[in-house]
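4.2 Preliminary Data

To establish feasibility before requesting continued support, the project team ran the inverse folding procedure on a target of 381 residues. The structure was first converted into the token representation described in Section 3, and no sequence information of any kind was made available to the design step. The complete token record follows.
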């Protein structure tokens, strides 16, 4: 009989790409014979990506459970109710053998109906501080998987298992670095800084780098992912400041030792990771585990005000391993940050140690391990 798995989570890349990596492992190991993958999301933003991976996407709306005052809280209960009705119809039709919850408010309706229908649930928490969905469903899930060992400080759950956060395969050999730099058309003799603002971009990081381009690009090569939403405005600012020195189009800005992109597809992202000597990034769990997988030193700038302050907690948990530096917003001054970057890139011993600690922290087999655990739950249910 055909097996069916429903994945559910929020609509951002932090929820989407870990699930894709798990599904790929199921496919790679011929473990998905006769299996259908469904992905329930609260919006259609990533439906094309989901279809390309062989998922069947389904929009199931959900209200966000905000723990602060907002007028949007008035409509959230109605959205959750509508989502529950949609989830009930969807789950009744699909009749999945297992529901995998990746967290985020989008997982609430599907998780609730899975409980009512007694469908086995496997739950994965990406962040150090578990979100509300994890807290709600962990007591009933067949298996609760966590990315950071520090999460056990927040969950009174003896059955939680440390799996790491599953990532797509970005591994590359040190010998491929020069080829990667050549592919990106950056100077092979300069150290490369890769700047990431997360799947949605970061105004704060973009502004910081914008003010430092003319200084950093003298000594280093810069690879900068702006974010699709921020790219047009950022491109305009670059044009105004550097006018006669810029080559640009809708997909890239290029001048001196600076390359900027609105977004990077997976293969280009792998190339940029490989080419980099250091990575500057937000502190979402997915990007932390990607950085660890490629074994690169990093500087993390956590988003202040993220739900449960999860980025800050992620950043400091990772910093405890010796793999990164953390710079918080109050210390994000141009001259101080520039000194930190210069000091780090001129300290070969420290860079090597940070890279070594990053590789030790990495969980390169997380997706494969989770895929096997999913099968184990399905076979025993």
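Position-by-position output of the design step:
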């Amino acid at each position: 009989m055909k097996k069916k798995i429903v994945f559910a989570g929020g609509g951002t890349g932090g929820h989407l790409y870990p699930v894709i990596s798990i599904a790929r492992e199921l496919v790679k190991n011929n473990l998905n014979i006769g299996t259908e993958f469904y992905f329930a999301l609260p919006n259609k933003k990533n439906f094309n990506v989901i279809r390309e991976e062989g998922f069947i996407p389904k929009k199931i709306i959900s209200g966000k459970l905000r723990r602060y005052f907002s007028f949007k809280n008035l409509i959230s209960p109605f959205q959750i109710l509508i989502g529950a009705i949609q989830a009930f119809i969807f789950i009744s039709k699909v009749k999945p053998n297992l529901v995998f919850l990746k967290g985020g408010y989008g997982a609430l309706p599907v998780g609730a109906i899975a409980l009512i229908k007694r469908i086995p649930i496997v739950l994965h928490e990406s962040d150090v501080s578990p979100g509300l969905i994890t807290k709600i469903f962990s007591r009933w899930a067949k298996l609760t998987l966590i990315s950071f060992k520090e999460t056990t400080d927040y969950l009174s759950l003896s059955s939680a298992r440390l799996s790491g956060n599953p990532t797509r395969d970005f591994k590359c050999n040190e010998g491929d670095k020069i080829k990667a730099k050549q592919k990106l058309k950056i100077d092979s003799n300069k150290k490369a800084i890769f700047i990431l603002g997360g799947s949605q971009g970061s105004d704060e990081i973009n502004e910081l780098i914008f003010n430092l381009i003319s200084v950093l690009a003298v000594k280093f090569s810069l690879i900068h992912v702006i974010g699709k939403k921020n790219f047009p405005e950022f491109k305009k600012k670059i044009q105004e400041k550097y006018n006669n020195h810029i080559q640009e189009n809708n997909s890239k800005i290029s001048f001196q030792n600076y390359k900027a992109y609105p977004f990077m597809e997976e293969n280009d992202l792998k190339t940029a990771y490989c080419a980099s000597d250091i990575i500057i990034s937000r502190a979402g769990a997915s990007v932390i585990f990607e950085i660890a997988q490629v074994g690169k030193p990093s500087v993390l700038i956590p988003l202040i005000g993220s739900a449960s302050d999860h980025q800050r907690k992620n950043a400091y948990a990772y910093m405890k391993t010796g793999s990164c530096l953390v710079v918080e917003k109050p210390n994000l001054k141009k001259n101080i940050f520039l000194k930190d970057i210069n000091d780090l890139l001129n300290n070969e011993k420290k860079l090597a140690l940070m890279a070594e600690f990053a590789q030790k922290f990495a969980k390169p087999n997380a997706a494969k391990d989770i895929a096997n655990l999913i099968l184990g739950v399905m076979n025993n249910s």
